[in-house]
Amino acid sequence: MSTDHPSAAGAQTGRPDPPGVRQTRVVSQGDLEPRTWAALDDLHARTGAPVTARRTWLQTWMDCFTSYQSFAVLVEDGDGAAGAALLAFRRRHGLTIVRSVGHAMSDQVRFPALDPAAATQLAIGVAGALQGLPRPWRLDVEQLPPDDPVVAALRRQLPWAEVRSGDPSPTVRFTRGRALRSYISRNHHQASRRLVNRMRRADLATEVEVLSQPADIAALLPDLERICRQRDHQLGRLSQFDDPEGGPFFHEVVRRLAENGEVALTTLRLGSQLVAYVLSFVDGSVPRMWNTRFDPRLAQFGPGRLAVDAALGAALADESIVEFDWMRGDEPYKASTATDVVPAVRLVAWSSQLLGGAETDLRWAKARARRRMRSVARVACHVHPRHPRQIVTRHHGRD
Length: 399
Hints:
Layout: E1 23-28, H1 34-47, H2 55-64, E2 69-77, E3 80-92, E4 95-100, H3 116-131, E5 137-144, H4 149-157, E6 161-165, E7 169-173, H5 186-201, E8 206-211, H6 214-234, H7 246-259, E9 263-270, E10 273-283, E11 286-294, H8 303-317, E12 323-325, H9 332-335, E13 340-342, E14 345-350, H10 353-377, E15 380-383, E16 391-394
Parallel strand pairs: 4-5
Antiparallel strand pairs: 1-2, 2-3, 3-4, 5-14, 6-14, 7-12, 7-13, 8-9, 9-10, 10-11, 15-16
Helix pairs in contact: 2-7, 3-4, 6-7
């Protein structure tokens, strides 16, 4: 590995290790051989890694996010991989920023390890790799499981680190039968009926399809991009497609997963026009919803709600499906149908106490400012009962 990458001290010479003897090595992206990926495939399968933490996703991210330098910390023995952490870094304004491979795109991240010993050895390897990076550095890995033994071991290995709450992932476990009505509230059901009736009065014919063929999905990708951009910009936020790396990733990861038979695209059309979609990745018996948008020009017809209902209904109609994962984010439309919420954590670490302390102080200052703003907002203005033109101000907050 080059001097710009984490230290590769302890790397293997190429001879296979005897079974039971585990070694740690650091491998740059360019040195990840097919046999290494095959060992990672086996490790992901044995540890139950979700689709956003497996090979296709990880390779696509590394191919598209070229502003990062990716590397893998591997714990291996003669039987294959026992633990792995795929990380990436880049320099910005004199700071080395370290993320997980899949950052910002992955709703679920994993550092797979076969057992507690492998988890500890992997954490030691990651800590050593971080020390080989240009300083100062900051590690920030989102959406890890709260009970991940690698996270616990990293917290012990890294002197300046903390574990924060991540974004929850609502999910619908099919424990109430296979009828959609069992998972939505009365208000939700009535609102959907009103939207359908509104479309009928406007003489708009609706058509719902669930697409799984690669060619059909690829043909619709430009329409998905158009609708996603329009909706995001209407909400006053940047779209994934505004990112020079995020946009190509969307197209490429959907194409590759579709070729694997791992995409279910639910579409809603009014007449011949695509107005809403729900993009899910089929992870065995669990569809995982990654992206959904609707055409904001037709918001009065609620196409987004109807498309979401259709996606959930299609999953319920398939007896092989046991759960529908809304994935990252606690938006109301997810919470309205969720039967459970899966928590996540975020691991943050710094190369020095000074860097970590400065960030902590900044976070506290921002939190104090937010509390102060909420306190000011609670100031109530009342009209004096005897003198209507006189305003009486009462402060309900604390100084």
